[in-house]
Amino acid sequence: MKKLVILGGGTAGTMMANKLVPVLGEKDWQITIVDQDETHYYQPGFLFIPFGIYTIDDVRKPRRDYYPSGVEVVISNIEGILPDENKVKLANNKVLQYDYLIIATGSRIVPDETDGLKNGAWHQNIFDFYTPEGAQALANHLKFWEGGKMVVNIVEMPIKCPVAPLEFVFLADWWFTEQGIRDKVEIEYVTPLPGAFTKPIASKFLGEFLNKKNIHLTADFSVGRVDSDKNKIVSWDEKEIDYDLLVTIPTNMGSQIIIDSGLGDDLGFIPTDPNTLISKQYENVFVLGDATDLPSSKAGSVAHFEADILYDNFLRVIEGRKPEPKFDGHANCFIESGFGKGILIDFNYDVEPLPGKFPLPGVGPFSLLQETRMNHWGKMMFRWVYWNLLLKGAEMPIEAQMTMAGKKGQ
Fold first, then answer.
1. Which terminus of the chain has fewer Cβ atoms in its 10 Å neighbourhood, N or C?
2. In the chain, what is the straight-line distance between the N-terminal and C-terminal CA atoms, in Å?
């Protein structure tokens, strides 16, 4: 009997289990999925909690509701990955032997990486919204906040869902307007990037959008430390920005077990072939989702497209065939822009977000690099799609590889 172990029961790991169990179950395979807890979070929903659009119950469900029958579920901490021995060490001295390993251990925020960020002011006037605890604490704070200067800061790249910080300031602009205090709030968006986004065309578009909403953009600012006594963030070259309320996107890193096992880079992301999704070190180890070191976005849509490619490549490898280099870095992101509207971008490693219609050329119904109400509804409908289709490994109408159909060149 062949053994497949999937480390991580989040978006990427759950999709892979649902795609592979129906096929491998007929071929005398034992499939085991390992995670440290029983709760699955719809992470894109964390963005909406601070503004009262979602509650925590809207974004969490039991993991086991989404695992396919026929998969062995192990809830345990991982003590070590031993790829030279094809073993995974779990808590209580349990060892899992594998023939093939899929690593989907995700990423996490690590505020301790920035001096002064996580101290007595953490969840007092310094908040994250990338965790359920942080999003809820920020929601409670905003209920009573009467105004001042709010700074939204990305400490360093890469981060999960690179558009989420932009969405946060757009929603904050809407939220403070609805509360009748927008004229009492100064919003500053501080990023280490040279502009509002990673890709120049979208960066220009989104930068102009920030300006239109009276949100100040400060680019090329790399935080070295936080002085919470004086309410300042300080860059490595000693530039200072004051705040009354700091919403931070701390350093993102891979799982600690990846670092401890020597499988990751300095940030704990696994060196992965950018097109086949196979580990650069071990030919029987596959990597997807936020655990990779790929220059693609760390987003749910990317994990979905990766899963489609990895499924095909996994079957090729176990049949003794060569994997195909088909993953092109495809990302598809709805950007909530406030006031019942949204923006949509679609891009890959080589092609920037471009204007046009999506997914049907000339028809849509969604518009690329344009603010529309339909894009907002696409964003809001995605939660249903996520729980009912995406996690279950269902076939989706969007191809894993990006197409230029419907796009207009710049």
1. N
2. 54
